[in-house]
Amino acid sequence: MAEYTQILLDVADGVATLTLNRPQKMNAYTRTMMTEIIDAFDRTDADDSVRAVIVTGAGDRAFCAGADLTPDDGARPFSDPTEVPLTDPKVRDGGGFCTLRIFNSQKPVIGAINGAAVGIGATMQLPMDFRLASTSARFGFVFARRGIVPEAASSWFLPRIVGMSQALEWCMTGRVFGAEEALAGGLVRSLHAPEDLLPAAHALAREIADNTSAVSVAMTRAMLWRNAATPHPMYAHRVDSRAIYQLSRGADAKEGVASFLEKRAPAYPGRVSSDMPSFYPWWEEPGWE
User: Fold this and answer.
1) In this predicted structure, what is the pLDDT of residue 81?
2) Which CATH number does the domain housing residue 19 bear?
3) Structural domain harbouring 233
4) How many CA atoms lie within 13 A of 120 on its CB side?
5) Is-contact 71 29, C-beta < 8 A?
6) Cβ-Cβ contacts under 8 Å for 42 (sequence gap 6 or more)
7) Residues 155 and 240 placed together within one structural domain of the fold
8) What is the distance between the alpha carbons of residues 6 and 32, in angstroms, rounded to a whole number?
9) What are 91-137's pLDDT values in tens digits?
10) φ, ψ for residue 226 (rounded to 5)?
11) Could you tell me if 52 and 134 lie in one domain?
């Protein structure tokens, strides 16, 4: 496993745990952290032993307290005083690189939000499939209070998760709010005592890892995230039909039926690295939408 300087990546028993690891800086986000997170997701996608990824923060104060505006690691600052054309790659938002990589993960992603999560610490969570939070967690889409706008593609993700009205309120007020409000607003799945947070995240990861087909889960993740954004259900029907046609003839479907009839735990042979349907990734096909 690669040596990282601002994250930790541990893989055990089919579950990868990615820990933002700058506790002395409340796990504040830098470009170094961004590149390491992207590399870690490249690794978990390539590792067929990984069935789920948990993302959390080091220490007990913060998941991620936002962007580090004065990084001490030699990373290039997030803002460049030199005006460049808007088409220049330098204009691309660093938070967006991270969230888009998480969005494209082939493995389910579980956020274990263990403390303060503001700015990119809040928006980074949005492409994760499940967000579990400590009762001590706090959230904030604080951009309007800093004179900027929501980033990391959060204007696409947040309304899909919590609805437009709630997304507008949190982003327009920029206020920091507690775990109970995050739960009531639909941002997080469940609240847990701090000592119970990671065990709860691991229990959810285990439920997926022990009972499901990796290929089925990878396809289901891509279908739900992507088909929900298409303009008509016919687009989803096209993808559903192809997937059912091919996967129902595969080894995982045979094992799924056999294990059910034999009342035993399944042992799915399919691998995400080699056994995805032939039309995957369908969204790269010309004219798919």
Assistant:
1) 63
2) 3.90.226.10
3) 212-284
4) 23
5) no
6) 101
7) no
8) 7
9) 788 899 999 999 999 999 999 999 999 999 999 999 999 999 999 99
10) -90, -40
11) yes
